[in-house]
Design brief:
The complex is a heterodimer of chains A (153) and B (151). In chain A, helix 4 crosses helix 5. Chain A is an alpha/beta fold and 153 residues long. Chain A contains 5 helices and 6 strands. Helix content of chain A is 38%, strand content 24%. Chain A folds into 2 domains: 35 residues, no CATH class; 96 residues, Nucleotidyltransferase, domain 5, CATH 3.30.420.270. The termini of chain A are far apart. The longest helix of chain A has 19 residues. Chain B is an alpha/beta fold. Chain B folds into 2 domains: 30 residues; 102 residues, Nucleotidyltransferase, domain 5 (2-Layer Sandwich), CATH 3.30.420.270. In chain B, 34% of the residues lie in helices and 19% in strands. Chain B has a 6-stranded mixed sheet. In chain B, helix 2 runs parallel beside helix 3. Chain B is elongated and about 90 Å long. The model of chain B has no long low-confidence stretch (mean pLDDT 80). Classes of the chains: A alpha/beta (153), B alpha/beta (151). At the A-B interface, helix 2, strand 1, helix 3 and helix 5 of A face helix 1, strand 1, strand 5, helix 3 and strand 6 of B. Strand 1 of chain A pairs antiparallel with strand 6 of chain B, so a sheet runs across the interface.
Chain lengths: 153, 151
């Protein structure tokens, strides 16, 4: 009975680890959350630069494709125009549902094209990278298999 | 003379020492990884948005991140399209696109398995993007990925 009472009354004489464990846990959770914030996604490009001029093609050693279709991206003032498959369409500002007509055109044209056709995205020099990525994104969504980029002109 | 046996210490406390060991290891791991990632990724680049980008990259070995950092961003986020962006790789600033081609060629000699991840600012004009693609092609690197954010 006395032994049991002694054990109950005995105080812990070592350092109190509780605050340290609390802080360490907070730091751990902070790093875990910070490392997972704002994930970046990747748009894989299967092939680079589809040069049209002979000298550039020789430099990068790219063979000519069997068939090609071009998507031109032009800048006119503040407006961006996309010329593809005989259509010219103006790009909307980014936002929900923007540029759905362009995506619909790509998807409808893909249905009639084989996978051998190489799609060349040909932006003008001053076209924003965001607009180029948007068009390339649509090409992926439309399931074009061979999408390349032409050098700036 | 009878001696009382020593009672085990901390018989009524949870032993937190292994927990602290493990947590400390995790913190060091995240600190080191964060530092390495910081060298690869430049925070000042506003990467473009995309809807259908994938996060899958089957093999991350040989991954090489190219950052194109605009030099004079205005308060409204716009940048001067005529100013050449800085090229950063692994925390190293390259002088120009010719230096990038040489850098990529050296990397290609050392390893045949290189995957480029291009982190370019969304406001940059294509005039500065195309030379990077051509440099990759000239270095015989055919795996290039555009880093994007989910729209």
């Amino acid at each position: 009975m006395r032994n049991r009472l002694d054990r109950q009354l005995r105080t812990h004489t070592g350092p109190n680890m509780t605050p340290m464990v609390d802080i360490v846990m907070c730091i751990l959770i902070f790093f875990m959350i910070a490392s997972s914030l704002v994930p970046e996604f990747l748009l894989a490009s299967p092939l680079l630069a589809a040069p049209t001029t002979t000298d550039v093609r020789q430099r990068v050693n790219v063979p000519p494709p069997p068939a090609r279709a071009e998507i031109e991206i032009k800048k006119d003032g503040q407006d961006i125009w996309v010329a593809a498959f005989g259509n010219v369409m103006k790009m909307d500002r980014p936002g929900a549902g923007a540029n759905e007509a362009i995506l619909a055109l790509f998807e409808s044209k893909k249905a009639g094209l084989s996978d051998d056709v190489q799609i060349i995205i040909r932006p003008q020099r001053l076209v924003r990278y965001q607009d180029v990525v948007t068009i390339y994104d649509f090409c992926i969504k439309a399931r074009f298999r061979q999408v390349t980029f032409a050098p700036a002109r | 003379m009878a001696r009382a046996a020593l009672e085990p210490m901390h018989d009524e406390h949870v032993n937190v020492t292994p927990l602290i060991d493990v947590v400390m290891c995790l913190i060091i791991f995240f600190l080191v990884c964060g530092q390495l990632a910081k060298e690869q990724v430049n925070d000042t680049v506003l990467i473009p948005k995309a809807v259908f980008g994938t996060m899958e990259l089957a093999d991350r070995s040989g991954e090489l991140v190219i950052n194109l950092v605009p030099q004079d961003r205005q308060p409204d986020g716009k940048i001067n399209p005529g100013v050449q962006p800085q090229v950063w790789i692994r925390g190293i600033k390259l002088e120009n696109m010719n230096a990038l081609t040489e850098f990529l060629r050296r990397e290609r000699k050392e390893s045949s398995n290189i995957t480029i991840i291009l982190r370019a600012d969304q406001e940059l004009c294509y005039d500065w993007i195309a030379p990077v693609l051509v440099s990759c092609a000239q270095a015989n690197i055919h795996s290039v990925n555009f880093s994007t954010k989910k729209d």
